[in-house]
Amino acid sequence: MDHYDLAVIGAGQGGLPAAHLAARLGAKVALIEMQQVGGT
Amino acid sequence: MHLVRHHAYEFGVRGVDPNALSFDLTTAIARKDKIVGGIISGIHSGLKKNSGITFLTGRAEFTSPVDIRLDGQAITADKSILAVGATPTVPTIPGLDEAGFITNNEALKLGALPASMIIIGGGYIGIEFAQMYARFGTGVTLLGRAPRLMPKEEPELSGQLEEILQSEGIKVHTSTEVIRAGRDDTSRYVISRNGEVEQRMNAEIILLATGRTARVDGLGLEQAGVDLNGAFLKTDDQLNTTAPNIWSLGDANGGQMFTHRATYDGPIAALNAVKSLGRAVDYRVVPRAIFTEPALASVGLTEEEARQAGHAVKVGSYSFAHSGRGKALGQNEGLVKLVVDGDSREILGGHILGPHADMLIHEVVIAMQGRSTIETLAKAIHIHPTLNEIVKSAAKAVQ
Ligand SMILES: Cc1cc2nc3c(=O)[nH]c(=O)nc-3n(C[C@H](O)[C@H](O)[C@H](O)COP(=O)(O)OP(=O)(O)OC[C@H]3O[C@@H](n4cnc5c(N)ncnc54)[C@H](O)[C@@H]3O)c2cc1C
Q1: Which residues on chain A are in Cβ contact (under 8 Å) with B36?
Q2: Active-site residue B260, yes or no?
Q3: Do strands B288-290 and B295-300 pair parallel, antiparallel, or not at all (unpaired)?
Q4: How confident is the model at residue A1 (pLDDT cuts 50, 70, 90)?
Q5: What is the residue range of A31's domain?
Q6: Is B265 a pocket residue for ligand 1 (Cβ < 6 Å)?
Q7: Which residues on A lie below 8 Å from B259 (Cβ)?
Q8: Interface predicted TM-score (ipTM) of this complex, two decimals
Q9: Residue closest by Cα to atom 15 of ligand 1
Q10: Domains, chain B, with CATH or none
Q11: pTM of the entire structure?
């Protein structure tokens, strides 16, 4: 099973900057999106 | 279209027959899709460049605070950030399901321009769609439950906006509750009530814009240990949910549901989750805008809110009717109103209805962020001829 430091659920307006910064801070990040990146 | 129809002649453009103009919704939607498509592919290429991010497609569901299942696969994560957004709230109105309705999700995907539309909800989403469809040529009825549209905005401004919408042919009904909906052979209908008076209204489409709810269906909140607070996720001021290893941001937390709030939350949630920095969010100065024409934008407290908070309130306002730039643009409607603490002279709120209000408000945003006094804004030299001069004039009008 794949293991991550951080899962970001939702690649919308808030999830994207959160995932990018977390990765820049060194975390291994899974960004999960069920519809379309960019969100609402 | 609206501009061409109403202002071309005034601006000296000849050869346009306003009666010969028509509008093709499909083309407009295709243009919108193309723009959005470009943005989405930009986001994907940004993600591909970031080797620290693995992008997974699927609907996430927590089976424990660290176990997440998504469409067929399972992963574990020490920590999580919920950035799940919100969905339209569907009120319980008898007959609504049988009548059939759309929400903002479908409102930008209609195959053909409807002849008529009833919009339920007098908030910013309802208002923006009302003006947009009315200008496209749809007969729009806008129903709001509160005594006025945008009840949390400065009454002078939301009142003036309501008049403008009505002057464009939108039928606005406030203090109006929808008590039933249905469908007959030819159209959909709602029965509304204003006091004792009941009224039946028909339209081709019913659009719901009655608020938003956190998108948490099937997310497995219980297994994650994350609690709700009403329709939204419960967080502390560091965006930590009731599960110590899970944070939450943006619309899912309620409050000011705007993109700029979600993008503000994002880095704070990341810093707290990854580096345990304990950063608190500060929502003291969060601007908001309704993208009508003219736009309505505001930040901070209304005059009434400032009084209720115990301030010795002073206000100043100034109308765009005095703006040379506004006259040149043919956009002279609206006003700027500033709310100030009379003792400290600190600016407590700014409210703008007018051309480019969504941009002008940032003068007040910066001033409030720096806790400037109203004198800073009043004394700052503004370029002539700009719309911004009206913000300065409103500042000078504060006693
Ligand atoms: C009609 C309309 C007009 C608007 N206009 C403006 C405007 O002019 N200016 C402004 O600032 N804001 C506007 N907003 C609000 C703005 O869209 C939101 O505030 C913003 O998108 C919130 O960002 P978010 O990251 O919280 O959620 P979203 O951007 O909605 O992103 C959430 C994402 O999470 C995904 N997701 C949810 N659950 C799961 C799950 N279980 N598994 C996987 N993925 C999941 C969703 O598919 C979605 O992509 C508007 C909203 C609407 C509806």
Answers
A1: 38
A2: no
A3: antiparallel
A4: confident
A5: 1-40
A6: no
A7: 13
A8: 0.99
A9: B258
A10: 1-45 (no CATH), 55-88+213-275 (3.50.50.60), 96-210 (3.50.50.60), 288-396 (3.30.390.30)
A11: 0.96
